[in-house]
Amino acid sequence: MDPLITTATSQDEQDRAARVAVLPVGSFEQHGHFLPLITDTVVASLIARRVSAEYGLFLLPPVTLSCSHEHSGFAGTVSLSASTLAAVVADVAESLHASGVDRLAIVNGHGGNYVLANVVQQANVAGPLMTLFPSRTDWEVARAAAELDSTVSQDMHAGELEVSLLLHAYPELVGGDYRAADHQADPRPHLLVTGMRGYTDTGVIGLPSRATADKGRAILDSLTRSFKDHLALLS
After folding, report:
1. pLDDT in tens, 142-166
2. What pTM did the predictor assign?
3. Which residue, of 58, 129, 189, 225, has the fewest CB within 10 Å?
């Protein structure tokens, strides 16, 4: 399996001399019975590694724990508070700045990390220093490019998109029972109150049975193209 974490040396980064760093942010939370707890970290790292290689950027190791409180009650889930995650990103940005890298792209693999949007907005008050990727639009464009059967709302968790990405890059991490795990729960008006338990017993909300490796490849290709606009804003 390809490494999920960067293996670059100090000399590699000195030679690269990148002015933009890429920080993947994942999570450690349930993803049904057929995907690993590290799924969001795998997704974030996969995207971050691809865009870093494509555009010559400084790839950082992933943040592997984040704000997964909506998954409480499912075995294996571990969360950080929103304030802790915000502090981690702030510390990373400060450390990068001290070493001459003053632009940061956060690649977020977990939809529950709402605080990252506030962190990025605040960081950009004095000018463009940080971006949050992928945006909802980026995901929608990628879904269309891959011709996914589900919408963003329908395919919230452990569904067609996430399984497709893992089937493309790390098929050994996907359990075979994903083909019989579809579960729909749309809309979810009280998610912030009830958490995922209010809408699913399995932890799945989506259509994993529709996933394919080809769709995963097309999603990743689309996201790589979309990142160019984010990078232009940081230049």
Report:
1. 999 999 999 999 999 999 999 999 9
2. 0.97
3. 189
